Amino acid sequence: MMKRFALATLACVALLAVSACTKAVLKPAPAISVPSGVSQAQVKKSIVSALEGRKWTLDKIEDGTILSTLHLRDHTATIRITYNTQAVNITYLHSTNLDYSQRGSTRYIHRNYNGWISYLEQDITRNLQNLSATQGG
């Protein structure tokens, strides 16, 4: 009986360890600074190019706001990107099958989400810097 209890406890601990490995704290994306001299239309083009390059769908595009979703197998992540000539901000909206949860004020999500957003930030930043460099800014 004791051996069965020990095995059950070990199985639970292992299951918790595995599930903890797939979750990470959902990190708020830092604002991306827009170089001076870059127009709002150019900022939008830089964002759209980065999204399309990373296979995000463009769900809704309005002046200053883009809603976009990444579809990977049976997982989705939807974000809102707000932008102007000063900054670009990426905000998590919702997801499917990414184990999103919140405990207190801390939000958790599949560990890959933060990487996807980081790659997107890098691409947007590079696109904006390339624009600035070609304008001599």
From TrEMBL:
Family annotation (PROSITE patterns): PROKAR_LIPOPROTEIN
Protein's name in the database: Lipoprotein
Keyword tags: Signal
Signal peptide: 1-24
Lineage: Bacteria, Pseudomonadati, Pseudomonadota, Gammaproteobacteria, Lysobacterales
Species assigned in the record: Oleiagrimonas citrea
